[in-house]
Amino acid sequence: MDATATIEDRMRAAMGDLTRAERQLASHILTHYPVAALGSITELARASGVSNPTVVRLCQKLGFKGYPDYQHALRSEVEAMLVSPLAKHDRWAGGVPDTHILNRFADAVVANLQATLGQIDHAEFDAAAALLADPGRRVFAMGGRITHAMAEYFVTLMKNVRPNVTLLSGMSNTWPPALLDMAAGDVLVVFDIRRYENSVLQLTEMAVEQGAEVVLVTDRWMSPAAAHARHVLACHIEAPSAWDSTVSLLVLVETLLASVQDRTWEVTEGRLKRLEALYARSRFFRRHR
């Protein structure tokens, strides 16, 4: 077995050799990776609908002595993933191939896109798009320190597609008034990638208490907010930089927008025509001469 392979990689590679119960367990872990396997063995077995011995057998098939050994390795991987920009830079700087940064960065971004689009379940994506297209639901969006820009971009364009779309501030003193307007069935789109922020989790929990449905856009290591999300869309984000790349998140956002637009075109077309008329009246855009 490749010593550099992650636990996630090893689990996916072993799928074909697992029993039905072990596959059921592995699928549950991968769907909620890595959060599902950070609790007790009893909690994991109950959540995945298998027995404790099944958990132990899967761990052994992956090359571990048992669940404690597996969980220790998983926690070590998670700790390595939640690194600061300084540590991340040092890791990428070691053993860098002798090619230009443009090539190295492009290779990483393209690989992220391929991995992201290859692992997202189409049914999950379509279900999230259907929620966002439902005219009976208001849509709210928020992000963290880095991902707030992604939430703002999402809201800016989604406002053109459909009505009742609101960007939530990262300032906690603005949440209570926003939550007053959040009703059961409304949708909260959450953007949260490592290092996961307590404020994002807190607002997610409060929104769920209001009855909101959460669509989470996160990385492949899963924000803690995943425990409260109805739909989770995980992206690959690693890049040869002190910071992670959000390109795959951007592509996912634009694809979601396109899907919602297709579902709501009868309404969206009229909104866009009215919007263009308002832009023309206000002379918002410069004319080419």
From TrEMBL:
The UniProt keyword set, sorted, is: DNA-binding, Transcription, Transcription regulation
UniProt-listed SUPFAM superfamilies: Homeodomain-like (SSF46689), SIS domain (SSF53697)
Xref: InterPro entries: Homeodomain-like_sf, HTH_RpiR, RpiR-like, RpiR-like_SIS, SIS_dom, SIS_dom_sf, WH-like_DNA-bd_sf
**Span of domain HTH rpiR-type:** 5-81
Q: Which PROSITE patterns match?
A: HTH_RPIR
Matching entries from Pfam families are given as: HTH_6, SIS
CDD domains given for it?
SIS_RpiR
Q: What's the superkingdom here?
A: Bacteria
The name on file for this protein is SIS domain-containing protein
- What organism does the UniProt record list as the source? Paragemmobacter ruber
